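REQUEST FORM: STRUCTURE PREDICTION
Request ID: SP-0412
Submitted by: Lab K.M.
Chain count: 1
Length (residues): 103
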Amino acid sequence: MATNYTNEQVAYMIDKYNESPTRDTVQSLAVELGKSTKSIIGKLSREGVYQKAQYVSKTGEFPITKKELVVKISDAIDGELERLEGLEKSPKKELKYLLTLVE
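STATUS: Completed
RESULT:
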């Protein structure tokens, strides 16, 4: 079976990506090595090096579900989670407000 990358290329990719784990690095490696970005990401993933970019909402926050907010509220007030599950139907903005009040 033919290999797509030499050991030297793999070591080079890992070193470059570890220096700067960004999408730009992946794209520059693809251009340098004459491969697609998907191929580079796939190889880095198989090597256990690739880090998926974390999603950030429009407001710049990491997303949190309503269920997670209700769990945090329950923990903050030492309440029974089962009795607070109906709160998940509330608007997220209001749940965040309630969490700030009880913390």
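NOTES: The chain has two domains: 7-46, 66-102.
Reviewed by: T.R.
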